[in-house]
Amino acid sequence: MNIYINNIKYKNNNKLNIIQFCNTLKIKIPVFCYHENLNVAGNCRMCLVEIEKSPKPIVACSTPLINNMNIYTESPLTKKSRENVLEFLLVNHPLDCPICDQGGECDLQDNVKSFGIDRNRNFLYKKRSVEDKNLGATIKTIMTRCINCTRCVRFITEYTNNDSLKVLGRSNTTEIGTYINKFVKTEFSGNLVDLCPVGALTSKQYAFIGRPWELKKIKTLDYTDSLNIFINVFTKNISLSYNSNKNISNNLKNDKIVRILPNINYNFNDNWITDKTRFSFEGVYNNRLKDINIINNWNNNISLRKKSNTLKWKDFFLFKKSNKYDKNFINIKYNLNKNHFYKII
What we know:
The chain is α+β, with helices and mostly antiparallel strands. It is 19% helix and 22% strand.
């Protein structure tokens, strides 16, 4: 099969659509709703390209290749179509970039800079606002930023067999939400944050923590999963000498884990990870037991249980090496001026 892209001839023997074929050739076509692991929706219209003998631009994500197809990805018609799509998206989009957690890794920012118009037209038009949704303990929502790409809806439907997210309304009142007020109850809810191309769905744990260029990325394996899934761990230097001391900035001495994202691995997990993998690092920093609380005069009578002292961890491990404890750690004999029996609580 012969395919012509910008008057250059290519060979293709696979059943691909236009955008898949262009990705193999590393030809950039902007997208919002398209994702390689989700079903094609074709509703953002950002991937419009010009086809020879076609009266209007064609959606690249849903158009299959045919023999001797002549595609133009940089023609004036294609560029003008992309500018118009971005202009309509920005009509209702708030100017939240300085305070948006998606800043620096936002598809809308990148596409506006690369394919958007270089001037602004002022419309006598009131911006539309959408009520925020409460989707649970992990997802922060600012639905006014939503561009209705439906990535989150398709992921919930296809991968979790859950219909908690749907598209509501029509025309200018279209929004994504739940039919009734309820949480997104799934172990993969954190992937919605990765899928969202704008700042409509962000992580509550990562809110206002840092920018992508401030973080260090470490490729490693997930220790909580027996499949050894590939993940990217992002850390941020919390020392005051981050900019002045190069020795500290080049290692992890004063770094703190701020988020964990999936690393693409088509053999196991594609682009997805569980919430356990994504948020388990918080247990390293929060609710840690600093001292061992001990109780004196432990017996079956609850009223006689009295808090006595706290046992430091270093003292406990020193005592542990002395082998004066039982294997189940039920009763620990520790010498505090007198011999008493204590129990760890």
